[in-house]
UniProtKB/TrEMBL annotation:
Swiss-Prot/TrEMBL keywords: Cell membrane, Disulfide bond, G-protein coupled receptor, Membrane, Receptor, Transducer, Transmembrane, Transmembrane helix
G-protein coupled receptors family 1 profile domain residues: 1-84
Membrane topology reported for the UniProt record: Multi-pass membrane protein
Main location: membrane
Any GO CC annotation of this UniProt entry: plasma membrane
Gene that this polypeptide is encoded by: Htr6_0
The name this protein goes by in its record: 5HT6R protein
Region (Disordered): 113-134
Any Pfam family hit: 7tm_1
SUPFAM superfamilies assigned to the protein according to its UniProt record, in alphabetical order: Family A G protein-coupled receptor-like (SSF81321)
TM ranges: 27-48, 54-74
Annotated InterPro entries: GPCR_Rhodpsn (IPR000276), GPCR_Rhodpsn_7TM (IPR017452)
Gene Ontology molecular functions: G protein-coupled serotonin receptor activity
């Protein structure tokens, strides 16, 4: 075991552990989200593709069954916009900025004036003189 010689080393060590722990939690959550998305994709679309190949080989798949498997895949595509906001905080924030129904009450809404000033680049600026420019 190495004993830190200075308080700054102990602080840096605990900070690096906290940083590593935070990133490992993010990596675990990201892999969990990816696993759920891929798992749902395979569960929904794999039967469709297997049945499609079987249909090409033996023409033995009833049309109704094929339609059910097709709609199962469509349902998976419908679930993606629901899964992303449930598991991804960044996705929630991005959607919240654009959809008024998803904004939090604590977030300030930009006014029309501030939006037009931001878009026209005519907002408040630091005073510049000819001396500073040259």
């Amino acid at each position: 075991l190495q004993v830190p010689h200075a308080p700054s080393q102990a602080l840096a060590s605990s900070e690096s552990r906290r940083f590593t722990n935070k990133h490992s939690k993010k990596a675990l959550k990201a892999s969990l989200t990816l696993g759920i998305l891929l798992g749902m994709f395979f569960v929904a679309w794999l039967p469709f593709f297997v049945t499609n190949v079987a249909q090409a080989v033996c023409v033995c798949v009833p049309a109704g069954f094929f339609d059910v498997l097709t709609w199962l895949g469509y349902c998976n595509s419908t679930m993606n916009p629901i899964i992303y906001p449930l598991f991804m905080r960044d996705f929630k924030r991005a959607i919240g900025k654009f959809l008024p129904c998803c904004r939090r009450s604590a977030e300030p809404r930009p006014s029309a004036i501030s939006l037009s000033m931001r878009n026209s680049n005519s907002g408040p600026r630091a005073a510049t003189s000819l001396k500073n420019v040259l």
